[in-house]
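Here is an idea for our session: we take a single protein and study its fold together. Start from the sequence, derive the backbone structure tokens from it, and show both lines together. Once you have written the record down, we can walk along the chain together:
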Amino acid sequence: MTINPMKMLVCLALCIGTIGTVSAQDLKDRGTLFTWNGSDAVGGPASMDEPLIGDRPDFTESSTTVGVGVKQVEMGYTYTFDNDGSTSTKSHSYPEMLWRVGMLAEWLELRIAYNYGDVFANTGGNQTTTSGGEDLYFGFKIALTPQDGVLPETALVLQTTLASGDDVFSSGDANPGFNYIYSWALDDEWSLAGQTQWHRAVDGDTGRPYSEFSQSVAIGKSLNDKLGAYYEWYCLIPDGADSAPVEHYMDGGFTYSLNNNLQLDFRAGFGLNEESDDYFAGTGLIYRY
């Protein structure tokens, strides 16, 4: 039996009762899967004639998709330093590649990510080096609703990592999760966003699985037609972990658009508690085609 995914989504939407009676083509053309009840607000991805909207450099991801048929590559580099009193650690993270592909509908995108890490640790003059690829990330982002006044623009990411990395960085198992994202354009210059995330994780010391939650709040400002800035707080909260600690961070950064389809960024941040890394800084770019 052949299954039509667009017809399945129409059936799902009708069961939920938030978008009324629509055809498969109408649903494909919608900028968001749903609308707020009674709302005539229209949302959706930025067109190729508008500046791109990226998921980097902040921890909080965007609440929009890239648009059907559009591809967007996001990548970067991050340097991190931490000293817990007995061991100092320097790490390098690259290429932080996230490939986003709009598919089937304006509100749906495929997401694939890959990263590589170098970690240099010094304990009492004894130095060790660890390098390797991390587990592959795979997911889908669904643009759920447009903003309507105080009702936010929202998106849901269904995601998992796959046990594909080098032994030193791989969890050895698939770790599914989800990310619920919400944002508000406050005016032409200011924006507010946040995300609530859960995923399965594996304790690095004991190999036992646990649940990890994260939360973030970010404020963004458009400084001019090319330059933007943001500042945010985020935390990582393990539940049931044997050794993974709670971590809190604050960071900020800038984005600069060379044109509508090419953006550069810089960010820096610091830990707010002893269990967090001391500080980090990084740079990157986004290309849309």
Observations:
- Helices lie at 5-16, 24-29.
- Residues 46-288 form a domain with the Porin fold (CATH 2.40.160.40).
- Residues 5-17 have pLDDT under 50 and may be disordered.
- Residues 36 and 151 are 8 Å apart (CA to CA).
